[in-house]
Amino acid sequence: MKVLGVIPARLASTRLPRKVLREIGGIPLVVHVYRAARRSPRLDDLLVATDADEVAAACRAHGIPVMMTAEDHASGTDRLWEVSRERHADIYVNIQGDEPLVSPGHIEEVASRTANKVVTTTRGDALYFSRLPIPFDRDGAGGITYWKHVGLYAYRRAVLDTYHALPRSPLERAESLEQLRLLEHGIPIRVTETDEPTVGVDTEDDFRAVEALLARHRPAPAS
Q1: How, if at all, do strands 27-28 and 23-24 pair?
Q2: Element spanning 122, H or E
Q3: pTM for the whole thing?
Q4: How far apart are CA 177 and CA 129, in angstroms?
Q5: CA dihedral defined by 183, 48, 203, 195, rounded to 10 degrees?
Q6: 93, 95, 84, 69: which is closest to 157 by C-alpha?
Q7: How many CA atoms lie within 13 A of 4 on its CB side?
Q8: Residue pLDDT, tens place only, 97-113
């Protein structure tokens, strides 16, 4: 099976504007994401999908393949759908443009299954995603395991077609979480577990944390 990795990257982030071009060690965040993702042997190809000329220019300056997409996409998955119109693959892996710590292990887990916070069924299907801690332990009974959602998705092309044809759902609009569109229309999402930590860049504090982690693992300059 051919697996294509796609990094949707837009400048109009609401919580941390222009974050994909914020530099860590003189290198834009989106370039760090690309370099991390390309270490995965599971991906046959990898590109950045953007609607911003600045992002495209930054990618090309670092030798990164980039595809220009429409400005009016409501989500990264809609942007991924546009890529699927031009680039054939059996599986499309949506790699968040603000996840510079994504690892080959993360990609292997999600690409091997054609499969924030997430609650799942005992079978491993997602029940709901939220930006708030769920489930709510009303009586303080304890014993609840809380799962962080990394935000790495793998789709077959037919699912992308279905997703893009569906209207934005009320829950998707309320939480601003694109995957809820599928759940609200009765389409299951299989979730897989990883023990590899990661930090998504949503706030200035996140950015500083990632900056420190990447600096710690940056090779020392030759003397």
Answers
A1: antiparallel
A2: none
A3: 0.75
A4: 8
A5: 60
A6: 84
A7: 21
A8: 889 989 999 898 887 76
